[in-house]
Design a protein that fits this description.
The protein is an alpha/beta fold. 40% of the residues lie in helices and 20% in strands. Bound molecules: pantoate. The site of pantoate (PAF) has 10 residues, from β2 and α7.
Length: 285
């Protein structure tokens, strides 16, 4: 596996592959890799194989512009040696580990902002977060120039926003959505889980339980109000959980719904101690 630590090294590496006619799939990450990320790498590999063979690049970059001033960027878990070992074993062809000054050069003035999708839901709780995500993903796309890129469905708003951005800006990258990977007790894998206390870790599967119930209710034709109130009751019954938000939105564009007539996505943001966990489920009426 090639390790590229600068934009120039990454460009040199992918230029050769492109000239050789090999398609490239990118897996953008912030490191602290776990098996959820490895399913993104596996999906990227499956995609290049389906094109007749190609290369998989994983980027590891803890992007400062998607953290708010009160969110502790320094506390974000980092484990470069462990990440590289996992990527080697997963058969990744290159890892891209740029430095912050390489990605954000002094004097830069340009950002990418996806208007409505970037300001709603998690964008309201974390102002500026999605501008940071959209900007860094655009930069990664421009540096690596992949043909496809894999993103987890767990970050459903991020996935929806990136699809919108790629369509709006005519970015020639196919977006590959990858289903959420879960622990045996239902907790969605996330680098943040490492920061949960043992008691909060034991309490956190309430999110998956609440989503299971809600999905069954939607399938049985329950009303929006009753799905919402049961979600709230189930989560509130767990004393360690502090509800940040519970939203039920149109699964395609995250617009508000007043009835459940089409597939909806249920989006949860819940704090356990100082760790904000998110989870989601698409439910079909
Ligand atoms: O999902 C993430 O890990 C990040 O938001 C991403 C897409 C790598 C951008 O920094």
């Amino acid at each position: 596996m090639q390790i590229c630590r600068s934009t120039q090294e990454m460009r040199d590496c992918t230029r050769d592959w492109r000239l050789g006619g090999q398609p490239i799939a990118l897996v953008p990450t912030m490191g602290a890799l776990h098996s959820g990320h490895l399913t993104l790498v596996a999906r990227a590999r499956q995609w290049v194989d389906a094109q007749g063979g190609g290369r998989v690049v994983t980027s590891i970059f803890v992007n400062p512009t998607q953290f708010g001033p009160s969110e502790d960027l320094d506390k974000y878990p980092r484990n470069e040696a462990g990440d590289l070992a996992l990527l080697r074993r997963a058969g990744c062809d290159a890892a891209f580990l740029p430095t912050v000054p390489d990605i954000y050069r002094p004097g830069a003035q340009t950002h990418v902002e996806v208007d409505q999708l970037g300001r709603m839901l998690m964008g309201r709780l974390r102002p500026g977060h999605f501008r940071g995500v959209a900007t860094v993903v655009t930069k990664l796309f421009n540096i690596v120039q992949p043909d496809a890129a894999a993103f987890g469905e767990k970050d459903y708003q991020q996935l929806t926003l990136i699809r919108q951005m790629v369509a709006d800006l005519d970015i020639p990258v196919e977006i590959l959505p990858v289903p959420t990977v879960r622990e045996a007790d239902g907790l969605a894998l996330s680098s943040r889980n490492q920061r949960l206390t043992p008691e909060d870790r034991a309490a956190a599967p309430v999110l998956a339980r609440a989503l299971d119930e809600a999905q069954a209710q939607v399938a049985a034709g329950a009303s929006l109000a009753s799905v919402r109130s049961r979600l709230r009751r189930t989560i509130a019954a767990e004393p360690r959980a502090r509800i940040g938000s519970i939203d039920i939105r149109d699964a395609l564009d995250l617009s508000r719904v007043s009835t459940i007539a089409r597939p909806v996505v249920i989006l949860l943001a819940v704090r356990f101690g100082d760790v904000l966990l998110i989870d989601q489920r698409v439910a079909q009426p």
